[in-house]
Amino acid sequence: MRVAVLSSGGKDSAAAWWWAMCKGWDVTHLVTVRITGGDSWMFQVPGTHLVEHQAKLAGVKWIEVLSEGVQEIEISDLEQALAALKIDGVVSGALRSDYQKSRIERMAERLNIKSWTPLWHQKSHDHMNGLIENGFKVFITSVSCEGLGEEWIGRTLDESSLQELEQLAEKFRFSIDGEGGEYETLVTGGPHLPGCLELTGTVNWDGRRGTYEIERVQSIA
């Protein structure tokens, strides 16, 4: 089975990628939709260019799809790129967005390929605990909700910090898996990669939200 993985570089994409590898499938491409218009109805916006470093580390071809992020047109941009690939299906890390899942499935039908969403409706705690237990290095690149301060930016989740995150999520009533946009991530290592990425950068914080501006990425095999 030859599949392409839709990847933003974050934790959900990484988990879906690893799932496909565990199935014994040939992950031929990582496909990233890069939004040039500032916002998107379907895809993560910040930091997605960093998927290129993950792809190089894993020896997988990376396809960058530029899109302005216009509703319904952005999925057409992705469809056009996938149509040029010799694949049997596409794997995505959709968790609970019916909007995203339904459009990817309809696109796959038009392309006569399969669509898999292995994380669909996984319980938030099970999903996050599974990532840590299986050795995924989940680096927080941005935060944008009450309860998550500057100290969380640039932090890599581990068992201790995940417990802390769970407590904050319960107190401030946000989704622990970040599905509501509470935070964004980049996976720097894990069972799907033969090495890891080392990041250097600076924290930008405006008092309510912030991002980690990555200035240098080093691949360590």
Description:
This protein is of the alpha/beta class and 221 residues long. The protein has two domains: 2-116, 3-Layer(aba) Sandwich (Rossmann fold), CATH 3.40.50; 124-220, Alpha-Beta Complex (putative n-type atp pyrophosphatase, domain 2). The protein is built from six helices and nine strands. It has helices at 11-22, 51-58, 73-82, 98-111, 124-133, 159-172; strands at residues 2-6, 26-35, 61-67, 89-91, 114-116, 137-143, 183-189, 196-205, 210-220. The longest helix has 14 residues, at 98-111.
Helix/strand layout:
Layout: E1 2-6, H1 11-22, E2 26-35, H2 51-58, E3 61-67, H3 73-82, E4 89-91, H4 98-111, E5 114-116, H5 124-133, E6 137-143, H6 159-172, E7 183-189, E8 196-205, E9 210-220
Parallel strand pairs: 1-2, 1-4, 2-3, 4-5
Antiparallel strand pairs: 6-7, 6-9, 8-9
Helix pairs in contact: 3-4
